[in-house]
Design goal:
Layout lengths: L33 H8 L4 H8 L20 E7 L14 H9 L3 E7 L4 E6 L8 H21 L9 H14 L7 E6 L21 H7 L1 H7 L5 E5 L13 H17 L3 E4 L34 E7 L16 H15 L5 E8 L6 H21 L7 E7 L17 H7 L1 E8 L12
Parallel strand pairs: 1-2, 1-4, 4-5, 5-6, 8-9
Antiparallel strand pairs: 2-3, 7-10, 8-10
Length: 442
């Protein structure tokens, strides 16, 4: 794998406790580190720690990032560099980890994620052992070098292969530390790669069951050699132009997806909650955006005919994995409201709601799940004023016209085919006294 640059490795020094300078002592030469040092100073000041502890997570509503006692022996920063996310920089959530890495003389590297990820080895940084002032200056220079390398990260090719970037980071960390428990990987990326083992531009990927997808790539996950390593995810689900923004539910789903997949690979994973914002980088290289599902048009049914509307798990009426709850309640509500309006527009209007599933679990459980999801939609229609007499529900399980083979010849589940097979199908009919037999579906 080619390397972009390899600065000389610094001579090791004794490990010392860190006392970062206050803002009054930051010199003009260190001003470029201002944004980073604000976060780093928070790691050592009791008042700032109290403020941090009181912060809340925009994604989970829980506590914000803390400054745990960590002792990295190796740290790889995996950096997304394409225009679908903010330009590369070090977020404040990583301030404590970076400080600990420098203080602990950890091996540090930056992995640049484009279509063919590469690595920049920064080596190990040392701190003066005799003088606090010089030690603080050494710390500022080390952090400045790391930040400069991150900000300089740029694409050399089209595409974004995040899985390959994490593999390079894992190989580096394992090669430079004796114990995986002291190995750290920090991923600063939107989590929407368009090539490689995990390609989020494939239709249905945003709706896959993370556990099922991880199982479908079990061999590739074993090849990452993540067992025992610590992975921090920053900025997953937060995008910039030309990628359209994800909804809050989609952003949360992306965070859950990556955490689940990497944990299945054996890593200890945490995901920070603060949004990443800012302009995208300027680059001639491109990455394909993830196409987001558009809300469907209100139903149109000709008198004396039937029309079947199919909403699979990638649609606005998709369901959470192994659940009867909608992935996005607001999006599902819009679709169901429009269908309810149509049903309320005529006395001869009715709907058959058929739930379908992937060929997972027993036939009995498939039918039960399909029926429960059909009833979930029916309940919402009744909430909008539709008479129960207008609604019929049916659970078909995985035995229905249009079923897509969702297992390989070896018996492994295809998670994307499973997304299509998991659906609710609404057959709308408008009958009138002058109708003969239904003229079929269209």
């Amino acid at each position: 794998m080619p390397h972009k640059r390899t600065p000389p490795v610094h001579r090791p020094a004794l490990r010392l406790s860190l006392h970062l300078p206050t803002w009054s002592t930051v010199t003009a030469a260190a001003a470029v580190l201002a944004a980073l040092l604000i976060g780093l100073t928070a790691c050592s000041g009791p008042q700032d720690q109290d403020n941090t502890a009181g912060a809340t997570s925009s994604r989970t509503g829980g506590p914000g990032p803390q400054c745990p006692s960590v002792h990295p022996a190796a740290l790889a920063l995996v950096i997304g560099v394409h225009q679908n996310q903010p330009a590369p920089d070090i977020p404040s959530e990583l301030a404590c980890l970076l400080t600990s890495a420098v203080e602990n003389q950890a091996a540090v590297a930056v992995v640049i994620v484009d279509g063919s990820p590469t690595i920049t080895r920064l080596g190990r940084f040392t701190l003066d052992t005799d003088n606090d002032g010089r030690r603080n200056d050494d710390m500022k220079r080390a952090l400045g070098s790391i930040r400069k390398a991150v900000q300089a990260a740029a694409a050399d090719s089209n595409g974004s292969d995040l899985f390959a970037g994490i593999k390079i980071a894992s190989d580096y960390v394992r090669a430079t530390t004796r114990s995986t428990v002291d190995g750290y990987i920090a991923v600063i990326d939107a989590g929407l790669p368009d090539t490689g083992v995990i390609d989020m531009t494939r239709p249905g990927m945003l709706a896959t069951d993370p556990a099922e997808f991880a199982k479908s790539i079990d061999a590739e996950l074993r090849g990452l050699h993540l067992k025992g390593l610590n992975v921090t995810l920053v900025g997953i689900g937060y995008t910039s132009s030309p990628q359209l923004p994800l909804t809050s539910a989609q952003s949360d789903a992306m965070s859950t997806f990556w955490q689940s997949v990497l944990r299945t690979g054996g890593a200890t994973v945490e995901s920070t909650s603060s949004p990443r914002t800012g302009k995208p980088p300027t680059t001639p290289f491109t990455t394909r955006p993830v196409v987001l599902t558009k809300p469907p048009q209100p139903p149109r049914v000709r008198p004396c005919t039937t029309t079947t509307l199919i909403y699979d798990d990638a649609s606005p009426v998709g369901f959470k994995p192994k659940s009867n709850a909608f992935r996005e309640t607001d999006a599902a509500e819009i679709v169901i409201r429009d269908i309810a309006r149509w049903l309320l527009g005529g006395s001869g209007r009715s709907v058959l709601i058929t739930g379908t599933t992937a060929r997972v679990d027993t036939d009995t459980n498939q039918v039960r799940r399909a029926q429960e999801r059909a009833r979930t939609v029916a309940t919402k229609l009744v909430d909008h004023g539709v008479r129960p007499a207008q609604i019929t529900t049916h659970g078909a399980g995985s035995h229905f016209p249009g079923y897509i083979q969702d297992h390989t010849p070896e018996g492994k589940l295809d998670p994307l085919a499973a997304v299509k097979n998991r659906s609710v199908r609404l057959t709308l009919r408008e009958s009138r006294p002058d109708c003969a037999t239904p003229q079929g579906s269209r």
